[in-house]
Amino acid sequence: MSSPLSATTLAASSPSALLDEARALANAPVEEVFTWVERRLGARAAIASSFGVEDMVLIDLARKHAPSLRVFTLDTGRLPPETYELIEVVRNRYGLAVETFFPERARVETLESTKGYFSFRKSLEARKECCAIRKVEPLRRALAGREAWMTGLRREQSVTRTAIEFVEADAEHGGLLKLNPLATWTRQDVWAYVKEHAVPYNSLHDRGYPSIGCAPCTRAVKPYEDERAGRWWWEAREHSECGLHPVR
């Protein structure tokens, strides 16, 4: 039986055909997944990167096996300086142009002028409002015109991510192909790849931050806590998502 990678490349495919092809790669080596992305999608696909360690693994794999794959980030205006420093390292090491999407200026100005700089700590609804302005809306612009996007989501990260699929049709963005090639990887798998390939990573990881987001909403975690316990730590664990990846 021939593998999906040996099939004839088509100039264009329906979303359902691409979904079927991607699903056939669910148990393939991750390098093969990237090779498929390069051949079938190229620059029409992009990695959504917050520059956590998983995203760094994706970027390293992409530069080796899918060099046409684009990389974008959402600059919320509240990122820690260590994240910006890593972005510069990535740009210089990989010769990579990182596409940056900011929230709409007027909406941020109104939010901070009327509700202050830490409104997100007042209630779950207030926090979701801030995330919607700073992340969810910019993501919609970042995905416009693309056919697929890739994330570093893993099932092991938290209770909100245990059901993550390797690939899905992203209903939130018009059925766009969404690939999560590290879905079944463990934390040990990720760090083993980083060490073997000397991949740069955010220095906050060495200070107890397994998950890194906006500076005011992220803290270091205790050894017994899950990897995303430092995100919005004042909320219940089942709420620890920002809206970029809706919990099913």
From TrEMBL:
Alphabetic keyword roster: Cytoplasm, Iron, Iron-sulfur, Metal-binding, Oxidoreductase
Pathway: Sulfur metabolism; hydrogen sulfide biosynthesis; sulfite from sulfate
Binding site for [4Fe-4S] cluster: C130, C131, C214, C217
Function as written in the Swiss-Prot or TrEMBL entry: Catalyzes the formation of sulfite from adenosine 5'-phosphosulfate (APS) using thioredoxin as an electron donor.
GO molecular function, one term: phosphoadenylyl-sulfate reductase (thioredoxin) activity
Name this protein carries in UniProt: Adenosine 5'-phosphosulfate reductase
Cofactor note: Binds 1 [4Fe-4S] cluster per subunit.
Domain Phosphoadenosine phosphosulphate reductase: 46-220
Primary localization: cytoplasm
